[in-house]
Design brief:
Number of helices: 1
Order of helices and strands: EEEEEEEEEH
Radius of gyration: 16 Å
Shape: globular
Structural class: alpha+beta
Strand content: 35-45%
Helix content: 10-25%
Distance between the termini: 57 Å
Strand order of the largest sheet: 7-3-4-5-6-9-8
Number of domains: 1
Length: 147
């Protein structure tokens, strides 16, 4: 599998480390013009849900309107399968982590993605953190309504 050259676009410059050791990208990452020619896999929050997605190179003329992504659904252990294509506005997606192409095996002919164990562990941590935050917000909302 070929790894895309990042050229002048430096993804690491747009990623910061949070206290829980989960990486989050700043929103500006999605509006940067970069020179990648190959799609990239990433963990992303799409309309509130954390997903495995394939991001297509951003075109300057369309980056403000909508982005084309491919969403993969979790099937079994470290196996994901193609779910659907999606066009989202930049406000509806937040890239949490760009994935190292060497840790992924993508069988494009049948739409299957295999993730390395360490990537699955990272995804589990992200999902656990997201669920904990969601539960805390729900509890706070119930307290406010009861007061």
């Amino acid at each position: 599998m070929a790894t895309a050259a990042l050229g002048t676009y430096n993804a690491d410059a747009h990623i910061r480390q949070s206290a829980s050791s989960i990486t989050f990208a700043t929103p500006s990452m999605l509006t940067q013009t970069h020179v990648e020619t190959d799609p990239r896999f990433a963990f992303a929050r799409v309309k509130g849900d954390i997903c495995l997605v394939q991001l297509h190179p951003i075109q300057p003329e369309t980056s403000r309107e909508s982005l084309g992504i491919i969403v993969f659904r979790h099937e079994f252990v470290s196996i994901f399968r193609y779910s659907h294509d999606l066009r989202v506005s930049p406000e509806d997606i937040r890239v949490l982590e760009l994935l190292d192409e060497d840790r992924i095996r993508y069988e494009e002919d049948n739409g299957t993605v295999f993730l390395a164990k360490d990537l699955m562990a990272q995804l589990r941590r992200m999902l656990d953190a997201s669920n904990m935050i969601r539960m805390q917000r729900e509890r706070q909302g119930r307290r406010r309504r009861s007061n």
